[in-house]
Design goal:
The chain is an alpha/beta fold. It has one domain: Alpha/Beta hydrolase fold, catalytic domain (Rossmann fold). 38% of the residues lie in helices and 17% in strands. It has 10 helices and 9 strands. The protein has a 9-stranded mixed sheet, with helices on both faces. The N terminus is likely disordered. This is Alpha/beta hydrolase. InterPro entries: AB_hydrolase, AB_hydrolase_1, AB_hydrolase_fold. Keywords: Hydrolase. It comes from Kineosporia mesophila.
């Protein structure tokens, strides 16, 4: 394992300027960012489909890092991390565990968004001693309702965005109400506030591998979620068209120790649209 030379952890207060660091483990150079004081249990974020370091909302990260150490990373083959992206959730989860352990953590909290939430469920089941608490946002269980349609919806949004010169997240992450369109613009503007040392966008090969992984997750047999005994916060918008909100309700009903929060007039990106409320709820959940 090789760590890059870097400043002491915890001195950075703004995700728009926090430096990107690297770690070498298992033949991969992992790109990551760290914010917040290095005491207590770290909160590791697992991102959505096609996301890199710069797709996390700075407003949300800054709020979480005010009270927690927050670690954001590119998994194998994603963004600035090297290697080939696997095409199964299970392999991606193993890679995430490799990265977490290479950083020296024996136990962490996990926040998984969409595809990241699928990884988080897998890690909690297969490496229960590694996970203290879970936050599952905009995601669903294996075999969940409508998850096999993610590829079609994502590709249609890419086409629609190209024709309208709009970011596809405008259509996938937010409602089409006046409020939804307004908050989408605000969110997308925040994602562009980092002007230096931005991450590398995902490759087409990585995007296709991730879509394959999500499709396989959607076709998989339902897992026994009673085996996930860690306290879990499930969050989503009330109108998620990408991973239907019914999946969040299903997760909350099947997980033995869970609580559910649904945000009004919000979709797949509800935790970004309601970043202030979500960060407050998350920090309170982690502190209990």
């Amino acid at each position: 394992m090789t760590l890059s030379s870097r400043p002491a952890e915890g001195i950075d207060a703004d995700y728009r300027t926090v430096p990107t660091r690297t770690l070498r483990a298992d033949g991969v150079t992992w790109a990551y960012r760290v914010m917040g004081a290095a005491d207590g249990v770290a909160l590791v974020l697992l991102p959505h489909l096609a996301a890199v370091l710069d797709n996390w909302d700075p407003a949300l990260i800054n709020a979480l890092a005010a009270e927690r150490q927050v670690i954001v990373f590119d998994n194998r083959g994603v963004g600035a991390s090297t290697g080939a992206t696997p095409d199964t959730v299970e392999a991606m989860a193993r890679d995430a565990v490799t990265f977490i352990r290479a950083l020296g953590h024996q136990q962490v909290d996990l926040l998984g968004l969409s595809l990241g939430g699928m990884l988080a469920q897998t890690i909690a089941q297969r490496e229960p001693q590694l996970v203290r608490k879970l936050i599952l946002a905009g995601t669903g269980p294996a075999g969940g309702t409508g998850i096999t349609q993610v590829s079609r919806l994502s590709n249609l949004a890419l086409l629609r965005g190209a024709l309208a010169r709009q970011d596809p997240k405008t259509y996938l992450f937010f409602t089409r109400t006046a409020n939804g369109r307004h908050t989408a613009k605000e969110f997308l503007a925040r994602l562009q506030e980092r002007t230096e040392n931005r991450d590398t966008p995902v490759s087409l090969k990585t995007y296709r591998a991730q879509l394959t992984a999500v499709g396989r997750w959607g076709r998989a047999q339902a897992a026994d979620l009673s085996l996930i005994t860690q306290p879990t916060l499930v969050a989503n918008g009330e109108h998620d068209v990408m991973v239907p909100t019914a999946n969040s309700v299903d997760l909350a009903e099947r997980l033995p120790t869970s609580e559910l929060v649904l945000y009004p007039d919000a979709g797949h990106g509800g935790i970004f649209q309601h970043h202030a409320a979500f960060s407050t709820t998350t920090l309170a959940f982690l502190a209990r």
